[in-house]
Amino acid sequence: MLLGLARKMPNPSSRRNDWLLAGAGVLCFVVALWLSAPGFMGADSGDQLGQARSGEYSDTHPVLMALLWSYTDRLLPGPLGMLVLMTAFYIGGLTLLAACVRGPVLWRALGLVAVCFYPPLFSNVPAVWKDTLMQSGLISGTACFAVFLRRAPSRTWRARAVAAAWVGAGLVLCGVGIGARHNAPPAAAPLLALPLLALPALRRLRQRWAGLLVAGLGGTVLAVGIALSLVAALAPLTRKDQNWQMLPVFDLAGLSLETGELLVKPSSGVLTPGMGLEEIGRLYHPYYWNALFYCLPWQGQSCVPLFQRTHDAQALTRLRKNWQQAIFSHPLAYLKIRSRMALALLGLDHGPPGVYYYAGHAHTPLAEPYPPTPQTRRLMQWVDDHMSWIRPWPYALLCVLLSPIGVWRYLKGRGSALAPALAGSGLACLLGLIVAAGSPEYRYMGWTMLCGVLSLVATWGCTAERDIESTVLDPVQGSIAKSARSSP
């Protein structure tokens, strides 16, 4: 797949250059597996592997990952199969993106190695988490779109079939990313806008900003459509545990303490009758929503849960309305509790927690037959020991700064649409986490950090995409559009 790509880029290269770039990608893949195998499993990983083996899927975690794991587990039991799949997607995507960057192939190959093993980005690769699958699916899908946009112009049916294959592969891979995490659709929307920029109707628009806006809206519709389609397709396999209710419970508890008023209505059915602000204050932690479901001594009983989940449809409807009304009634208090979460996610408040929490023992019984190798253990321990200098906020700042720069360069015909798409994706992912996260775990920020680095590379390393008008319009219209953009 990787061979021959450089010949299709705007900057021609020899077959030897193709082999060098592909060889760098293969080397990164082999070294990454050697450092990571058989893959680290946290508690969430154990839940998903258990579902993969039992065939009983719950919406507590995205079903798609457990379903994929059920197949890889037959070929390579345990975490290793998923680790191989995710690492192949991740490094394969980075390799394809390196083929889209201009400059000497040796520097591109060295840059590929540097990005692959840059500690803040590589730290999540050994972990078999849904976050890692989302990241690998989105980056490989984005790379397919980038190759499609930068292919040499051609009007032959074979070239169009190949172009359609790149777009189809990108959609499937982005679908894997969207299905891997519940908050992935916002991150995928700017990326799914990339292939839409090649639509003839958008390319005919006289104002490039109008085409960019319509493509952005189309990408959002595509992301939502893919997410809803996956939910509908997997619904027959899924047991509804209504895990979403943890978010309104967390927000209502925080709002109650912030306002000094119990905002959880008894009709919601989640708060133990008789308990109030005092009990909430004893268990509430602004960075850990699971604590609200712990138990307390209560009315002569040693352990009574503060909050409990409900599966009653009417109670869930009342809980949703209770949550919405509390936010609209106390917007400043809501912004305050969510800004605390934002600062923690960015590493500006209390710093990020450890990546693995590795303590020399398995975090789930299903991981015990697959202990980490000595080099994997050393790698995880090194990352945990050096988390003090890793902060997500500089990468989020890069996304903030490069989004308008990338858009401006694209509108002027000086830069690739890939740069603002990556920066926008990183920001959209962060905003989704600020609204919906129940803890500021470092792994959540992996995609935003990766987007910050890659958008920096794409802003100055990628030229404008090929003149698509020359393939989708007739030669006269294409030359007129090209002249119009190049005129002062």
Describe the model:
The protein has 488 residues and is mainly alpha-helical. It has 2 domains: 6-238 and 374-486, no CATH class; 243-329, no CATH class. 63% of the residues lie in helices and 3% in strands. The chain has 21 helices and 4 strands. The strands form 2 sheets. It has a two-stranded parallel ribbon with strand order 1-2. Strands 3-4 form a two-stranded antiparallel ribbon. The longest helix is centred in the middle third of the chain and has 27 residues, at 208-234. 43% of the residues are buried. Mean pLDDT is 87; it is low at 1-13 and 467-488.
Topology:
Blueprint: H1 15-36, H2 43-54, E1 57-58, H3 63-75, H4 79-99, H5 105-116, H6 119-122, H7 130-149, H8 157-180, H9 184-196, H10 200-203, H11 208-234, E2 238-239, H12 246-259, H13 277-283, E3 295-298, E4 301-305, H14 313-329, H15 331-346, H16 374-385, H17 393-411, H18 418-436, H19 446-461, H20 469-472, H21 475-486
Parallel strand pairs: 1-2
Antiparallel strand pairs: 3-4
Helix pairs in contact: 1-4, 1-5, 2-3, 3-4, 4-5, 4-7, 7-8, 7-9, 8-9, 9-11, 9-18, 12-14, 15-18, 17-18, 17-19, 18-19
